[in-house]
Amino acid sequence: MKREGILKHIPWMLLGILGAACLGVVALRRGEHISALWIVVASVAVYLVAYRYYSLYIATKVMKLDAGRATPAVVNNDGLNYVPTNKNVLFGHHFAAIAGAGPLVGPVLAAQVGYLPGTLWLLGGVVLAGAVQDFMVLFISSRRNGASLGEIIKKEMGPIPGTIALFGCFLIMIIILAVLALIVVKALAESPWGVFTVCSTVPIALFMGIYMRYLRPGRVGEVSVIGIVLLVAAIWFGGVVAHDPYWGPALTFKDTTITFTLIGYAFVSALLPVWLILAPRDYLATFLKIGVIVGLAIGIVILNPELKMPAVTQFVDGTGPVWKGTLFPFLFITIACGAVSGFHALIASGTTPKLLANETDARFIGYGAMLMESFVAIMALVAASIIEPGLYFAMNTPPAALGITMPDLHRLGTEDAPMIMASLKDVTVHAAAAVSSWGFVISPEQILQTATDIGEPSVLNRAGGAPTLAVGIAHVFHQIIPGANMGFWYHFGILFEALFILTALDAGTRSGRFMLQDLLGNFVPFLKKTDSLVAGIVGTAGCVGLWGYLLYQGVVDPLGGVKSLWPLFGISNQMLAAVALVLGTVVLIKMKRAQYIWVTVLPAVWLLICTTYALGLKLFSDNPQLEGFFFLAGEYKRKIAEGGAELSAQQIANMNHIVVNNYTNAGLSILFLLVVYSIIFYGVKTALAAHKNPKRTDQETPYVPVPQAAPADGVTEGEVKVSTQH
């Protein structure tokens, strides 16, 4: 038996050695281009070994998952909210919910400092922190009847920290929604092809919703195929529309126009029935998400492209043009998802546990789905690193940092078109010179040719990560799939990103509406009624109004809204993850498993160090390179005061936007600090009291054994009685 036991580990040992060797090549081969395959193989090896051993250790030793214990879905099976679901199906639902814009955008932005730092954090962070958090919260919630994060904190720590947590979760949701919307705005501004394609998803989703509900109920696969065909047709026809002399200019919108349109859309969408638009779009997003990432991985294997971005760039010192801040701590908040994400704690509690058929499935769904998201992030980082570095910086650097002012591309359809094109060529020359001066040589012709190849008037001022990723996707797909040009695949990439970002925006606005109604209901009980149209309108208006305000401020920020909103999003998101891990620590102590708290304490402490230090720098640093909130606000107030009559009205308005944005960000940052450390204070207090008590004090629901009959739709008795052993 011992010999057999050793033999079964040999393939895993070989896989681990292969992964370590590939990672060694990625880390040690400096000053030369290496194949992107090294990163892909290293990542897959790390994920498989971590899932096989570390997640199994947590499942069997730390949590002691019980296959014979009935889950909330089995106990409360009502066919509506509590539905035991096949673990493979639930994996897809959970993955679709957690894998939003973060794992796509954060790694693309992180490429500013090179591909190596981001790769190491994505792999180490997900294994030791991100997947642990998701797994732990899913386990804790499933042992508490599928309670939400705020409800669990209230049960385990008390009503005061529970209320604080609910308030903090709502604030973080607002930041997340503002950032998601900003990414869509930056991708669609001045892009008639993108606008037409993304707008087409609304009638397509409506058609799918009506088709599934009234015409062909239950035919999910059938309607999904129809939806995908319609999406491909929309992408192709979008190219025709964009080059039409009338419709092209008519669909070329400024970023502010798209902002208000998106706010209006989100308000209406959040009040519509879920089956009408949200559910159909979710189906499309899931198919596209998995298909594109798998296709991108296969394309990289076939093409074996070189990583053109250096392993480490000079911008590790904090002088980068895309985002400000040194490697530590700002890399760890720039990659806001993919390694660890507090937002996942909101999904792993309250929603997914109500669908869990067997407690042992939590390992596959909680730990496994987070590993899959990390792979998505790795693919995004690779896609950003295989394009020319000069093009990467030209696309993602705000115009002000390039020393240029973008012409009004909306006027390309007017008689001023020749003048606008001449101006565009001029600013492209200046942009190329600025980027080349940083050591990433690129010619104006290369920038202009890229814009021509993807069917856009310009690729400048495309911050936010989404357009860069779309260029990387187009770079791979147009070489391995004949018959379509770069323009088609670029807008396919934009649609791929925008589709599930809009899905997350829809779902997030609904969740934010319910959170706000719950908060306001403490003062006006009527507003807690989720079935009331008036209460729904009030909650939706409040939620959309708050994230819409932050979105608008980010869009009109002359320094680039991504630079101000993304750090705030990253910090708040990682702080929420730290709170979730602190909760996990408290629960383990109350369960009398204190010997295992290192599993949650170590990542929690690391996240708190990174986020607190980063927030302190963003608040109080007077280093101009860090662009601290109070420092920038003070600087621009001084410029307004000293400028006097020499400043134009537009210049004063731009400076005032910067002042307001930075004071807003500073206020939110201080609020986050108070919320997080208040919960940590109560967590430590609760943990100390529990440690002194010789008995278990956790608030698990009573043990109920799994019934003998199959408990759910499509879930067999054999699937329920899964062993925790590998």
TrEMBL record:
Pfam families: CstA
Membrane topology listed for this record: Multi-pass membrane protein
Region ranges (Disordered): 697-726
Ranges where the CstA N-terminal domain occurs: 35-614
Transmembrane segments: 12-28, 34-54, 95-115, 121-141, 162-185, 191-211, 223-242, 262-279, 286-307, 327-352, 364-387, 488-505, 533-552, 564-589, 596-616, 663-684
Domain of life: Bacteria
InterPro entries: CstA, CstA_N
Protein's cellular compartments: Cell membrane
GO cellular component: plasma membrane
Keyword field: Cell membrane, Membrane, Transmembrane, Transmembrane helix, Transport
Keyword rRNA processing attached: no
PANTHER family in alphabetical order: INNER MEMBRANE PEPTIDE TRANSPORTER, PYRUVATE_PROTON SYMPORTER BTST
Family designation: Belongs to the peptide transporter carbon starvation (CstA) (TC 2.A.114) family.
Protein name per its UniProtKB record: Carbon starvation CstA family protein
Annotated source species: Serratia marcescens
Phylogenetic placement of the source organism: Bacteria, Pseudomonadati, Pseudomonadota, Gammaproteobacteria, Enterobacterales
